[in-house]
Amino acid sequence: MNSSMENTQTPPRATSTPPPTFRYYDLVMAAFVAILLLSNVIGAAKLTFMDVPFWPDGMWPAPDGVFIYGAGILFFPLGYVIGDILTEIYGFARARRVIWTGFAAMIFLAFMSFIVVGLPAFGGWECAASATLQMTGNGTAAPGDICQQTYESVFGSTWRIVLASIIAFWAGEFVNSYVMAKMKVWTKGKALWTRTIGSTVVGQGVDSLIFYPIAFWGIWTSEAVITVMITNWLLKVTWEALLTPLTYFVVNRLKKAEGVDLFDTETNFSPFASEKPEA
């Protein structure tokens, strides 16, 4: 029973000094980095839409009731929820280490994607795209060339999108964590929902303001960039609000399991601080 998260006997102790070790910090870090990489591998390459029939006709940003958004929105809010949990439970200093870990993982992912996409394709490489074209009689190119083009369309992001993703993630996550930590002190640890949603409003706002102009300005129309930027921001904030009960559940369980309720009253909030969290 001592190893269970069901520790309801001892309430979490409010403190500004973290313990030497935490029981579940490494697992939360792993979940954060995994979702971050999944959002860039699976979600970044697909643009999708949602038809809202009750949306007023002609109203911006979806005059026809069709909201266009990137599929990565399914992952990013979960990343921000875990980011909120990191700061709420483990404090800004440890959240900072996780953000830098995710930042390094994104750079490594971008580098390896560049290398793998650039490798020459074997002419006999078969894939779903080449098989479909051959079945319909439209396969005039070598199967390897067809598969390479398909592979590049998914994993061969332009340098602008890669740069925008890395910078937007770094800035948005640090702003999110900073606002979360400061609001916890201001609210004296009460009203968790105000800081989870509030930090997401600001953090996701910074993320969107950086990502879309860097990635798509001059490629999409200015109206399209602004529309998708605001639509994605609204959907991300809505996601965060809808996931508030889940955030409460995980935060309460982890606080009981770790035995402390950490407040960043003596924290260096510089993203570049090199000192380790105090024991």
Q: What is the topology?
A:
Layout: E1 13-15, H1 25-43, E2 47-51, E3 66-70, H2 76-118, H3 128-135, H4 143-155, H5 159-186, H6 192-216, H7 222-242, H8 244-258, E4 260-262
Parallel strand pairs: 1-4
Antiparallel strand pairs: 2-3
Helix pairs in contact: 1-2, 2-5, 2-7, 2-8, 3-4, 5-6, 6-7
Would you count the extended β strands for me? Answer: 4
Overall pLDDT confidence: 84
Percent of sequence in beta strands = 5-15%
N to C succession of SSEs: EHEEHHHHHHHE
How far apart are the termini?
26 Å
Report strand order across the widest sheet: 1-4
Structural class: mainly alpha
Shape label: globular
- Helical proportion, percent range: 55-70%
Count of helical regions: 8
Quickly list its features.
4 strands, mainly alpha, two-stranded parallel ribbon, 62% helix, disordered N terminus, 279 residues, globular, two-stranded antiparallel ribbon, 8 helices
Description:
The protein contains eight helices and four strands, in the order βαββαααααααβ. By secondary structure, it is mostly helical. The model is unreliable at 1-8 (pLDDT under 50). Strands 1-4 form a two-stranded parallel sheet. The longest helix has 43 residues, at 76-118. The chain has helices spanning 25-43, 76-118, 128-135, 143-155, 159-186, 192-216, 222-242, 244-258; strands at 13-15, 47-51, 66-70, 260-262.
Short description:
This protein has 279 residues and is mainly alpha-helical. The protein is built from eight helices and four strands.
